[in-house]
Fold each of these.
Amino acid sequence: MHRPYKTRAGGCTVTVFVPYDCNNNCPFCVNKGEYADMTGFSLEKICESIEVMDKITPACDFVFTGGEPFANLDSLQIMLDKVPYTHHVYINTTLPVSKTTTEEDILAFTEKNKDKISCINVSRHMQHYVVESNDELLAKLPVPFRINCVLYQDYPVEGLIPFIERFKKIPGSNIQFRFDYTATTPENLYDSEHDKIVHDLNKIGRYTGLDGCRMRCGFHYDYHGMEMVYHKTLPYSCIVEEDPKDRITYNILYDILIKQTGEIHADWSDAVLKDVRLDIPAYRHVVFEPYDLHWIEKVE
Ligand code: SF4
């Protein structure tokens, strides 16, 4: 029998994998393989699944990722139109500019949807894994944006300050540095002593605190007035735990995924759940708990 589901108040974050690819090949990408064969990908089925999740948790967060959400603005618009204004919407993108999608197209799209998009998370890495559009486009975006930078393996530490300075110049910038999440374990999630990235950032920024939950954490820094966070998260998003009050063992979900085919999954990998497909009738009866993300340390 399936264990009952539990999640945070408001519901799990729903991450939607758009049914079209990006033009990059980042070495840490775990999604690229899925885009190699697009058989069964369906915009229509994704939209149906967005409607299902909206009905169950009408105030959850939606994240659009890929692939590349901005590679097909017409399809992205169709999906966004299925997400009512009760949700926060985040878009993970490289902000690609091409002959078919110009800067003007991206600006017109973001302007049209600015009341719906809470933040655009723009991938920019110290090693040039992704084709980058002009930084000036960031300054023109009519919605909040954040730079996401994976500090992968032996990243060039001498490039950290120039990288940070590059974005500090752009009004509204903040940076989220990320550990390669495929290498995160419950043991190293909160370990700062042996974490090279924490040591490197401690030399550059002023540490202001740590927040976190069972699944992820963030080391916060101030760099001459710009906010930076070093984010670590586990490579799966379900935790199995017995509630000491009711003695029931729950599958505690942090992220739900709408895959490119429209299938809904309860986790990123099968590390915890043998069958990752979401039991939708069971999720309609999900038990809510307060979100366990909290400040663990704050430094004035
Ligand atoms: S841009 Fe994103 S989806 Fe594309 S290869 Fe890099 S990590 Fe993967």
Note: The CA atoms of residues 13 and 61 lie 5 Å apart.
Amino acid sequence: MTASTVSSRIPVHDVDCIFTDRWSPRAFKQDALPEHQIQALFEAARWAPSCFNEQPWLFVYPANAQHHEMFLDLLVPKNRRWACKAPLLLFLLARRHFAQSGKENRHALFDAGAAWLSLALQARRLGLYAHAMAGFDLERSYEQLQVDPEKYTVVAAIAIGRHDSPENLPEDLLAMETPNDRKAPSEIAVTACPLIAE
Ligand SMILES: Cc1cc2nc3c(=O)[nH]c(=O)nc-3n(C[C@H](O)[C@H](O)[C@H](O)COP(=O)(O)O)c2cc1C
């Protein structure tokens, strides 16, 4: 933790608890999620804003247990250890070009990020948690998901489920099972003048 990091989950300024209630646990209950909850997650993501309303995100989810295993196998071992319990694993893709013009959409990742957060906040509303992961085999993900890298970027994997008792985690993961700190407000929002002067 750096000197300017804020070490508690209590916000410095008054914000809606929907933001502070979201975090990324590793202890998941294995119980399957009902289809209506899965669809509600995607519905929330559907309402995210995007450049030219392109909605370049695509959430890929397993059709069956075999697909679920294949998704799991794409994760790096460190993530697979805990994500194997999560009942739902997704991959988030972003379409690289605008549908109409065919031009490169350099905001696609920004927009996919907005959709991910909508999904993650909706997860909390449903009593679930969503944990994003960059730790997966990128090259193999294109092969296994049969994604054309010219058309899509595989952005992240996401594990979703109910939070389990942290005591069920192995010791090293248990030590990490706590919401993370945040930078101080002054580090993430500045007036333009000091930046220009630098
Ligand atoms: C794009 C992205 C990639 C991430 N990759 C991983 C990962 O591979 N493994 C992991 O355990 N957590 C991963 N995380 C979770 C972050 O470490 C976590 O969001 C961050 O530390 C803030 O903590 P919080 O989500 O609990 O508030 C990732 C999060 C994001 C948004």
Note: Residues 70 and 144 are 8 Å apart (CA to CA).
Amino acid sequence: MALQITQSCVNCWACVDVCPNDAIFQDTPHFLIDDGKCTECLGDHGVPQCAAICPIEMAIVDELGEFLNPPGR
Ligand code: SF4
Ligand code: SF4
């Protein structure tokens, strides 16, 4: 299980330090999540920390492509 960062990401760095698995890295043109490291925060936090802190709508999706921070959230 892993989340993904979309092209809506504005490279604000907010999610990088809250990830318990150091799964988020900078790439061109935006940040990405290493799907080999992302656990969706299971065992560490009740909710995915990257999605909880991300200020941008539609920047993080789950494996089904569902936005964790949909428009109007
Ligand atoms: S869901 Fe958790 S483990 Fe996965 S990238 Fe986000 S903060 Fe890291
Ligand atoms: S918090 Fe959201 S907008 Fe900021 S770097 Fe992470 S995914 Fe991108």
Note: The longest strand covers residues 24-26.
